[in-house]
Amino acid sequence: xxxxxxxxxxxxxxxxxxxxxTSALLTHDYLLRVREAGAIPxxxxxxxxxxxxxxxxxxxxxxxxxxxxxxxxxxxxxSLHLGDVDPRRDALELGLAAEAVSRGMPxxxxxxGVQLLxxxxxxxxxxxxxxxxxxxxxxxxxxxxTQGTHGVALVPGSRLAEIAGTDHLEVNxxxxxxxxxxxxxxxxxxxxxxxxxxxLEGSKAFLLGVQxxxxxxxxxxxxxxxxxxxxxxxxxxxxxxxxxxV
Length: 246
Ligand SMILES: [Mn+2]
Hints:
- The protein has a nine-stranded mixed sheet with strand order 4-1-5-6-13-12-11-8-9, sandwiched between helices. A two-stranded antiparallel sheet has the order 2-3.
- It is of the alpha/beta class and about 250 residues long.
- It is globular and about 55 Å long.
- The chain has one domain (about 5-240): Class I glutamine amidotransferase (GATase) domain (Rossmann fold).
- The protein contains six helices and 13 strands.
- It binds manganese (II) ion (MN).
- Manganese (II) ion binds near residues 192 and 198.
- Manganese (II) ion binds near residues 175 and 192.
């Protein structure tokens, strides 16, 4: 059974935890979707860089949502509207994302995850949509996360469109940053009505990032996405572990 490593976040001052302590946290949505799709989820400790050889022990990487990526990581100075950043997560995830891609390991990015993936491969980000882009679309919804609030058009022929089996999805939206310059190895596979890039993908190994949170939505797409990712992890694990011909 494939093992999927998931990035986690740091949280200070959680109820029930001693004052001044930081906790490593991952919401169950991510863990349960991976498990339901047939893999074993394991959490990466968000405490800074790890030896890249940790990837020898897992079959896929899921980059989860969270803080803004530090703009210094893509050569920009911080906007006044930059949100929280976590240098420990950036250090861990940027290294692992680039390494996973170079190994051909399946990678799925969600929200911060698609942004992180883009930066890891040389792309840049819009640091704050409301102050940088005039738009009718609200990318920071107040509605519950189970509810789709804006449409995305999927690029025909993309892996994402193939997985979804449609060219349109209604998605939730909890981001104020977005992909700007797309990293060389990636291409856009979904856009919102205002032109914001809502998904990126690679052309070879399973390499896909979405700007929304499918793990919170119960539609057909969520099951298909996690199944496709876990299936790619299964194939990757099998091929990697097959005894090499001498
Ligand atoms: Mn959005």
